TrEMBL record, chains A, B:
Localization annotation: Cytoplasm, Perinuclear region; Cytoplasmic vesicle, Autophagosome membrane; Endoplasmic reticulum membrane; Endoplasmic reticulum-Golgi intermediate compartment membrane
Protein name per the record: Stimulator of interferon genes protein
Residue stretches making up the STING ligand-binding domain: 1-176
Family that this chain belongs to: Belongs to the STING family.
Lineage: Eukaryota, Metazoa, Chordata, Craniata, Vertebrata
Length: 176, 176
């Protein structure tokens, strides 16, 4: 059950310490730029087909990279000053209003996608969809039990079949 | 089988693209500093007890942080210019000779360690040792089959029971 371990790794190796710092970085960003974010939660995208492109603009032109938040540096497992940062995106709705949000795909989905492409992994596309759902449910459960992370995130499950008919599916889902 | 997924994640989400770049970064480092490294391989530490401290100096005073290699930036899963970097350590042997090596602990071991501490994870210390071994064997197999990564790494399994009697166990193992 690959997804179970990936959800724990994503929480323990990332969300557990970046989520509590997010509010402070959003405040610093406001002090530096005067920009107010639509939400200081980390919006975490979970596409069911595990397709997580590097640039969201390729998926929906109403989601544009704006700027990175101030970075965080930590000594971890022998790597000194390892860098952690998030990207702010500018999202335009159907009325041309602008929203600034901190958004990113759940990176472990890249692992699930690539495993389904690597013949050594013996991992099919059906396994993959099942594992994305297991990742989502496990992560959701872990985060709900975590006092440090409560209310600091939003998990957004994206159905690619629904998205096929709607080019603005991503922007609509983020600002809901 | 948590370790199986963590090994794939560590390869697909990290080693597969950092290992091929290592030689180039070691060359850049030589151009900037004139320092020659004992090896341009990434030395990956795998302690059987999954204890991976932030600073190696705490484990063995003959392993001292020297400097970071030049960093690499990639757009990944919506995070723009995510930073990847490695640390160079200065290792002193029993004859006071100095070696420069690129070393770090295998980060997923932190996940295994913390899972065994988190009551929500239902993961015992026995599970943990078994999973570290499974991680090592899976990773070893994946890396041996990978043309891009061949000869660019060294996996170093560390037995904490052996280390207990020898304060210089870590430095000795790295420069073997
Ligand atoms: N030593 C080291 N230096 C790195 O820069 C690095 N980046 C990743 N990894 C390890 O490779 C594997 C794959 O990474 P992935 O990004 O898919 O998952 C990552 C990713 O989803 C998230 N995460 C960690 N660091 C960041 C980050 N800087 N930005 C965004 N997400 C991050 O949390 C997961 C677990 O991270 P780690 O537990 O640190 O170990 C990872 C993992 O075992 C690294 N290991």
């Amino acid at each position: 059950n690959v997804a179970h371990g990936l959800a724990w790794s994503y929480f323990l190796g990332y969300l557990k310490f970046v989520l509590p710092e997010l509010e402070e970085q959003v405040r610093k960003h406001y002090n530096q730029t005067g920009e107010i974010l639509h939400s200081s939660r980390l919006h975490i995208l979970l596409p069911l087909n595990a397709v997580a492109p590097a640039k969201m603009e390729e998926v929906d032109q109403n989601v544009l990279f704006h700027q990175n938040l101030p970075e965080m540096q930590l000594d971890r497992a022998g790597v000194r000053k390892r860098v952690y940062k998030h990207s702010i995106y500018r999202i335009i709705d159907h009325e041309q209003k602008t929203y600034f949000c901190v958004v990113e795909y759940a990176t472990p989905l890249l692992t699930l996608y690539q495993m389904s492409q690597d013949s050594t992994a013996a991992f099919s596309e059906q396994d993959r969809t099942q594992q994305v759902l297991l990742f989502y449910r496990t992560l959701n459960h872990i985060l709900e039990c975590s006092l440090e992370c409560r209310n600091r995130y939003r998990l957004i499950l994206l159905d690619d079949q629904q998205a096929d008919g709607e080019p603005q599916h991503l922007s609509t889902e983020i600002i809901k």
